[in-house]
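Shipment paperwork, digital attachment
Item: protein structure file
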Amino acid sequence: MFASFGILAQLIFTVRIEHRKKRRQVDCRSRKLSPFWAPRTWVCLLTVALTLTAAAQNTGTEVFSATDSATTRNVVRWTGSLPDAAGRTVEVRFRLYQDQAEGLALWSETQSVKVGADGRYSVLLGSTSSEGLPQELFHAGDARWIEVQPLDTLPIAGSNNDAVAQATKETPLPRNLLAAVPYAFKSMDAETLAGRAAEDYVTVDELKSTVADQIQASSIVTIHTPILSQLAAGTAGYLPVWTTSSTLGTSLIAESGMNVGIGTFTPATMLDVNGASTLRGAVSLLATAATITAGINSPSLQLGASTYSSATNASVAQNFVWQAVSAENNTSSPTANLSLLFGSGTATPTPTGLSIAPNGQITFAPGQTFPGISSSPGISGDPGTITNVTAGTGLTGGGSSGSVTLSLSTPVATTIGGTGATNAAEGLANLNGISSVLPSPQAMAGPLNVPVLNQVYVVSPNSGNDLAVPINTALNSCSSKLGCKIEVAPLAAAATLSEPILITKSNVALVCDTPVAMATIYANPPLSSYGNFYEGPVEIDETNNVSMTGCNFNVSSISVGLVTIHLFGATNTTINGNYINSTRTPSYGGILGIRVEGSSAYPSSHVNVQGNFVTAPSIAYSVGDNSQYVDFGNNHSQSSYQCFDFNGSGGGTYADAFGIKFHDNYCVGDAGPSYVESARDVAIQNNSFWQDSTTGAPTIRVHNTLTKSPSLHVVIDGNTFVGNSSNTTAVDFFQNAQDWQFINNHVRNYGADGVTVDSTSGTPLYGLIANNQFLDNGQIGASGNYCGIRLHQSSGNNVGYLSISGNMFVDDQGVPTQLYPICSDGGQAPFLIQYTGNFNVLPKPPSLPMGCSNCVTTTNFGPN
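Attachment content:
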C-alpha cells in the first residue's frame, strides 16, 4: 500500500508539473481544497504534512523552481530563527549533509540574511547560484540534513590601526532534517533524466559514429621538437621560469615537501630565503585571540649569530628573540611588553629581563650597570655606576647596595671654633685673613630679555610727555589668551606718569628698553583697591604669568604709604632688573620699593624678584599676608629705612607669609631693622649687611606680636654682618620666635652684642647658634659687659632650649670691648642651654648664672 502511495504521489507531482510548467511550485496556501480523491488534494496533504514537520523544528521549507528570462533555478524556502541577531543583517552559511552529525558537506552557500525584530528570517536556498540547488543532491531520494552557521567577523588591528586580518567566529546550530525536499525534487525530475532533457543525450549509434570520425581524423600524432627542448631544460624540485619568450629554465624557487626555498634547495621552514630581502610593506607577527584562561604571545622575531666553541670544537648558535609577551590576562587592564629573550645552542630562548612597556619605559635586566667616561682624569674602572657611598667627616651611614642614607653625625665635633686651626695662634692667624672691608655694590648688567609674545605694542610718551596713558591704552588692548608685550621705546628725556600703570591681565610682559627714568608727578595718588597702600607707578593685580623688566622709576617724596611696584594676588610673576629711586618722608610709612601680598581668594605665589636696585625707600622689599614662595635674589637696597620686611598676620593656612627666600642681596646703609614677623619657612642666606641699621636697632629682628602667631622655621645662614658703633646687635630673636637657626655667619664691629635672644613679652624656643664668627663687637665704649651672644631674660619669661656650638669669639683690638662670649641678664635663669665646642679668646669666660637649669658647658677652648 505504501509503495502504491509513493507511485501515486509521484504521479500527482508529474501531472502538476505538466499543467504548471512555468511555475513549478508546491504551494497550497492560496487554493481551495478539492475532494479528498482529487490529485490536488493529495499534493496539498503532502505539503501540509511536511510543513507541520518543519514547524515542529521551528523551521520551514518550500520547494520552488524559480523562472527568469534566461534559466530555471530550483530553490527551497527555508525559515528559521536567530534570536541573537534580531533586527540586524548578518552573514549566514547554509550547508547540506548526508548525515545528522559529522561528515563532509554536500553543498554550501553563504547569504546576507535580514533578521526580523522577533529573531525570525526566511531565505531561498540556492538563490545565489545561477543553477539553484543541484537536483543530483536528491536523485537517490535520501533525506538531507541542513546546518545553519551565523558568521561574525572580527578585525585584527595592524600597523597604523589598519585591519590586516580577520578572525571568523562560527557557531553552527544543530542540523535539521529536510524530509520533504527529496520527494519534491524527484517529482520535478519526472520529465528529465538525471536533471537533463532528452535532447541532451545521444544514442549508441550516434556515439559510435562520432568516435570513429575522431579516430580517423587523429590517426597521426606529431610531437614538435621545440616543446621537447623546453621540457628538458628544467631541474627537479625547482619551479620553472621562462628564460626567453620560448624557452623554460630553472628559477631560484625550490619546493621540498611543504617548504619553499628562495636561493636554497633545502628550505628549513615553510619559507626559507637565503639572501637579502626587501619588504615594501608592513610585516605583521600577530598572535591568535587570547582566551579567558591564557594570553597569547606574538610569534618571535629571531636574530641568530654563530660562535665557535673550543670546548666542543663546533659552532654554537646564539639566538636573540624579540617577542610581544602578554600580561595581565583576564583583568580589567590587559597589557603586554616587548621582551628580549636569549638562548645558546639548542636551548629554548628565555627572557633576559630587558623589556619595554607600552608607555616606553624600559625595565633593565638584573645587574645592569651604566658606563661612564672611562678616560676622565683620576677615574678608573666604571665611573658611570655608583657602587658604594662612604660617609665622610661629620656624616654617618652609606652603603654599597639598595637605598643609601647619609646623616649628620651629632654632636658635630669642632676644633678651635671651626676655624680649621689646631691651636689658638693658628685660629687668630686665620681670622686676621678675613678682610674687614666688603666689596662695593656691583652695578647691574642691565635689563633682562623676555620672549616676544604674540602681540607687541611699542609705546612712547604722548604730547604731554606722559607714558602712563599710552601704556594703559596698550594694556587694555591686550588679550590674556594670546599674551602681549608692552615695550617702552627709548626715551630722549625723562617722561612722567600721570597715573598708575595697571596690569590686570595675564600673560603680559612690560619691558622698558631705556635707562631714562619715568617720574611720578601725581601728588594725591589713589588708594589701591587691594591692600592698605596707595597706588604707585605699577599695580599688578590678580594676574598670572606677568613679567616686568628694566624699568626706571623716580618716585617723588610723599607723606602717604605708597608702593612703587605692588603685586597683589600675582602668581608666576617675575620682577627683574628694575631701578627705583625715592626719598623717605617720613622715615617709616612712606614709599615702599617692591611689595608682594594677596588675599585668601587671590594669594600671591611663585614670585621672583631678581636683580633690582632700590634707593632710599621706607622699605625696599616687603612681603605681606597671603604670600607664598617668594624669592628675592641679587637685589640691592641703598639707604633705606628697612632693607626687608616679611610680615604675615599668622591667622591661618594662607593668611601668613611663608616660603620666603632672601639670598645673595646687598643691604647697605639702611637706617632701621629688617623684620621677620609672624612669617614661617624663611631662609636668609648669603647676603651682605653693610653698616646696616644706624638708629640703634638690630639689623634683623625675628619676632611676632602677642596677637599673631610666632615666626617659625627661620634660618639665617652664611651672611656677613658688618656694623658700626651705632648698631646694638646684628640679629635679635625676640618674643615667641621658635625653631630658628643662626649658622655660618660672620658678625663684626657691632656697638654692643653680636646676637641677642630676648624673652621680653615671650619665650624664644628651640634655637641653634652654630659655627659663627663674632669679631670686635662691643664698639660703644671701652667699658661694659658686651657679649658675643646675649641671653636676655624678662619677668615671667626666660630663654630655653638653645644649642650654642662651634662658634668663635675674638676681640683683636688693643682695648678689649667684647668681654664675654656668652652672657645672661634680666634676673631670670635660662634653662636647657648647651654651650659646647666653642673657641673663645676673649678676656672673660662664658657668663651663665648659677641657677641655669640643665645647662651644659663642655669641650670649649679658651677661658671657661
